[in-house]
Amino acid sequence: MSLSQLNGKTYLIKTFGCQMNMHDSERVSGLLDSCGCLEVATPEEADIVVFMTCCVREAADTRLYGQCLSCKSLPAPPSGKRVIAVGGCIAQRDGEGLLTNLDNVDVVFGTHSIAHVGDLIAQAFDDGNHHVRCEEHEENPATTMPWHRATSYHAWVPIMTGCNNFCSYCIVPYVRGREKSRPFDEIVDEVTALSRMGVREVTLLGQNVNSYGRDLFGSPRFAELLRRVGDTGIERIFFTSSHPKDLLPETIDAMAEVPAVMPQLHLAVQSGSSRILKLMNRRYTRESYLDLIERVRDRIPDIALSTDIIVGFPGETEEDFEQTLSLAETVRYAQAYTFIYSKRPGTPAAEIDDPTPREVILERFNRLVHVVETTANEFNQHDLHRVVPALIEGTSKKNASILMGKSAKNQTVHAPIPAGYSIDQLVGKIVDVDVDVARTWYLSGTVTGDPR
């Protein structure tokens, strides 16, 4: 199938879910760009609408269905014909079954089949039929594709795909497959090239970055990778996600000793109850998690810790929840992503009956949110009246005269645009902000010195 007919077509990509999905979207965008397609800002302008989906929670399915079906009422696109494509985890999970409920979808492509999206869309324009490709394995991974990065200063760098953990509530291993690490030197070479291109910050991506290399070398080599990436000249390194059972002492040492690794760690706990953790198949206990936190803070005292917590896992009692609440109070997270349990068909937890009333779960959820907001606010007070370097990403959504950037601890930082500068001159620059306000979810102050 010739891709030439895509030349001049307009496209829009809507991305739901995790950072890996964001990176996959950048690869799809790069592929469409290479075919001569032009990115637009609204679905009304788009000949091609691509939904990159997540299936971790039920709300993601609902969101996809609503937005996809709303495309039926759009006016005719510039070319006179619109192709709707669905990719990502929902596509991999449901495959051709998506077409049963979404009859306006033309193309379905799974998480392993991104490299074929151009051909599938071209075929849909050519014959008007449905085209589905959701293979379990493909020869050409997404990392071999062209790349349209959303920003010039930051890059997502996947170091591995898939997951071997099979947490009892999680659908990811079924839709992303088993762990597969990228070659060590390939990652280092990619970050080196990005640094030379002016990228200042990378986020290393994997469902469980701490186990990077186990499939290639027989044991994890994530600590070594951090050190090598730190030698490339890149200024800021973040990574996600980390599984507590695989965060090794040598990785903590590398975090403490490599200047480019930012003092921020996302370490999902999910529950503070050892009983619930066992039911979740998380393979660590409350006690071992708290011991790990202590070891991390011993090496990196000012580190910003963030986490994921699920409320309402099937069978969770008030005692179990109190254990979660007290763990959050003990760790004192800088940020936490709190979720009410969402049943995912096909996972072991979906088979567990739970009689807990919804209002009880909601009340517990609200109590947890209160604790998280309190500890996040307390954490940000540490930077009050300090000078904090922030990488500028743009302006505040509420005020175009206010800069918005991220600190080394991934805090949102605001400051008025300094006199003599425009926002275009500052995006991608690092500025020092003298913090005079510290709130729960942001710091604000004034810029001091010159951008760099």
Protein model, in words:
This protein has 452 residues and is α/β, with parallel strands linked by helices. It has 15 helices and 19 strands. The protein has helices spanning 19-34, 58-70, 89-94, 98-101, 117-127, 172-176, 184-196, 214-217, 222-230, 249-257, 274-279, 286-299, 318-331, 358-381, 423-426; strands at residues 10-15, 38-39, 48-53, 83-88, 107-109, 131-133, 154-158, 160-161, 180-181, 201-205, 236-240, 264-266, 304-311, 335-340, 387-395, 402-407, 412-416, 430-438, 443-448. The strands form 5 sheets. The protein has a 6-stranded parallel β-sheet, sandwiched between helices. It has a 5-stranded mixed barrel with strand order 15-16-17-19-18. It has a 3-stranded parallel β-sheet with strand order 7-10-11, sandwiched between helices. α9 (222-230) runs parallel beside α10 (249-257).
Features:
452 residues; alpha/beta
Radius of gyration: 23 Å
Q: How would you describe the shape?
A: globular
Low-pLDDT residue spans: none
**Average pLDDT score:** 93
Q: How many angstroms separate the termini?
A: 48 Å
Helical content class: 25-40%
Alpha plus pi helix count:
15
Strands ordered across the widest β-sheet: 2-1-3-4-5-6
Overall number of strands: 19
Our estimate of the beta-strand percent is 15-25%
Largest sheet: 6 strands, parallel
Q: Helix/strand-derived class?
A: alpha/beta
